Amino acid sequence: MRRPKHDGPSASARAEASASVDTCCPPALPAAALPADAGDANLALARLAKALGHPARVSILRTLLQRDTCVAGELGDALPLAQSTVSQHLKQLKEAGLIRGEVAGPRICYCVEPGAVALLKGLVAAL
What we know:
By secondary structure, the protein is mainly alpha-helical. The protein has one domain: Arc Repressor Mutant, subunit A (Orthogonal Bundle). The chain is about 55% helix and about 10% strand. The chain has helices spanning about 10-20, 40-50, 55-65, 75-80, 85-95, 115-125, and strands at about 100-105, 105-110. Strand 1 and strand 2 form a beta hairpin. Helix 3 packs across helix 5. It is globular and about 45 Å long. About 20% of the residues are buried.
Protein backbone atom coordinates (compact mmCIF):
# COMPACT_ATOMS: atom_id res chain seq x y z
CA MET A 1 0.00 0.00 0.00
CA ARG A 2 1.37 3.41 -0.97
CA ARG A 3 1.50 6.28 1.45
CA PRO A 4 -0.07 9.56 0.38
CA LYS A 5 2.38 12.21 -0.71
CA HIS A 6 3.20 14.65 2.09
CA ASP A 7 3.68 18.24 0.91
CA GLY A 8 4.98 19.65 4.19
CA PRO A 9 3.21 21.32 7.08
CA SER A 10 -0.39 22.36 6.81
CA ALA A 11 -1.35 25.98 6.22
CA SER A 12 -2.36 26.36 9.87
CA ALA A 13 0.97 24.92 11.06
CA ARG A 14 2.86 27.30 8.75
CA ALA A 15 0.82 30.28 10.00
CA GLU A 16 1.44 29.28 13.63
CA ALA A 17 5.18 28.95 13.00
CA SER A 18 5.21 32.29 11.19
CA ALA A 19 3.38 33.99 14.06
CA SER A 20 5.88 32.66 16.58
CA VAL A 21 8.79 33.88 14.43
CA ASP A 22 7.22 37.34 14.03
CA THR A 23 7.06 37.81 17.79
CA CYS A 24 10.41 36.34 18.75
CA CYS A 25 12.51 39.51 18.97
CA PRO A 26 12.59 41.65 22.08
CA PRO A 27 11.10 45.15 21.89
CA ALA A 28 13.09 47.67 19.88
CA LEU A 29 15.46 49.96 21.70
CA PRO A 30 14.73 53.69 21.55
CA ALA A 31 16.50 55.46 18.70
CA ALA A 32 19.74 57.09 19.75
CA ALA A 33 20.15 60.77 19.08
CA LEU A 34 22.83 61.85 16.65
CA PRO A 35 26.01 62.66 18.57
CA ALA A 36 26.45 66.43 18.88
CA ASP A 37 30.24 66.18 18.96
CA ALA A 38 31.86 65.55 15.57
CA GLY A 39 34.38 63.17 17.09
CA ASP A 40 31.65 61.07 18.70
CA ALA A 41 29.72 61.07 15.42
CA ASN A 42 32.82 59.90 13.57
CA LEU A 43 33.35 57.06 16.04
CA ALA A 44 29.72 55.97 15.86
CA LEU A 45 29.72 56.01 12.05
CA ALA A 46 33.04 54.16 11.86
CA ARG A 47 31.74 51.45 14.22
CA LEU A 48 28.57 50.92 12.19
CA ALA A 49 30.43 51.12 8.86
CA LYS A 50 32.91 48.50 10.08
CA ALA A 51 30.01 46.18 10.86
CA LEU A 52 28.78 46.66 7.29
CA GLY A 53 32.28 46.26 5.84
CA HIS A 54 31.53 42.89 4.23
CA PRO A 55 29.04 42.32 1.40
CA ALA A 56 27.51 39.35 3.24
CA ARG A 57 26.66 41.54 6.25
CA VAL A 58 25.12 44.16 3.98
CA SER A 59 23.08 41.40 2.35
CA ILE A 60 21.95 40.06 5.73
CA LEU A 61 20.85 43.51 6.89
CA ARG A 62 19.10 44.18 3.57
CA THR A 63 17.28 40.83 3.82
CA LEU A 64 16.13 41.56 7.36
CA LEU A 65 14.94 45.04 6.36
CA GLN A 66 12.99 43.68 3.39
CA ARG A 67 11.25 40.97 5.39
CA ASP A 68 10.33 43.27 8.29
CA THR A 69 9.90 40.21 10.53
CA CYS A 70 12.12 37.97 12.57
CA VAL A 71 14.17 35.59 10.48
CA ALA A 72 15.81 32.42 11.71
CA GLY A 73 17.49 29.63 9.76
CA GLU A 74 16.34 30.76 6.34
CA LEU A 75 19.07 33.41 6.28
CA GLY A 76 21.55 30.65 5.53
CA ASP A 77 19.38 29.57 2.61
CA ALA A 78 19.29 33.12 1.21
CA LEU A 79 23.06 33.47 1.02
CA PRO A 80 25.68 31.39 -0.80
CA LEU A 81 27.59 30.87 2.44
CA ALA A 82 28.00 28.11 4.98
CA GLN A 83 25.73 28.41 8.01
CA SER A 84 28.77 28.85 10.28
CA THR A 85 29.90 31.83 8.17
CA VAL A 86 26.42 33.36 8.27
CA SER A 87 26.42 32.90 12.06
CA GLN A 88 29.74 34.76 12.35
CA HIS A 89 28.40 37.65 10.28
CA LEU A 90 25.21 37.74 12.38
CA LYS A 91 27.35 37.92 15.52
CA GLN A 92 29.22 40.96 14.18
CA LEU A 93 26.01 42.74 13.20
CA LYS A 94 24.53 42.00 16.62
CA GLU A 95 27.64 43.27 18.44
CA ALA A 96 27.38 46.53 16.47
CA GLY A 97 23.75 46.85 17.55
CA LEU A 98 22.32 46.74 14.01
CA ILE A 99 20.32 43.58 14.63
CA ARG A 100 18.93 41.79 17.66
CA GLY A 101 18.25 38.18 18.21
CA GLU A 102 16.42 36.00 20.66
CA VAL A 103 16.41 32.29 21.25
CA ALA A 104 13.15 30.81 20.00
CA GLY A 105 13.17 27.11 20.76
CA PRO A 106 16.05 25.38 19.00
CA ARG A 107 17.01 28.43 16.94
CA ILE A 108 17.78 32.12 17.22
CA CYS A 109 15.52 34.58 15.42
CA TYR A 110 17.02 37.82 14.14
CA CYS A 111 15.46 41.15 13.28
CA VAL A 112 16.66 44.67 12.57
CA GLU A 113 17.26 47.12 15.41
CA PRO A 114 15.38 50.09 13.89
CA GLY A 115 16.98 52.70 16.16
CA ALA A 116 20.48 51.68 15.07
CA VAL A 117 19.49 51.77 11.40
CA ALA A 118 17.96 55.23 11.91
CA LEU A 119 21.19 56.35 13.59
CA LEU A 120 23.25 54.97 10.68
CA LYS A 121 21.06 56.82 8.18
CA GLY A 122 21.35 60.05 10.17
CA LEU A 123 25.13 59.76 10.47
CA VAL A 124 25.52 59.16 6.75
CA ALA A 125 23.16 62.02 5.89
CA ALA A 126 25.21 64.35 8.11
CA LEU A 127 28.44 63.73 6.14
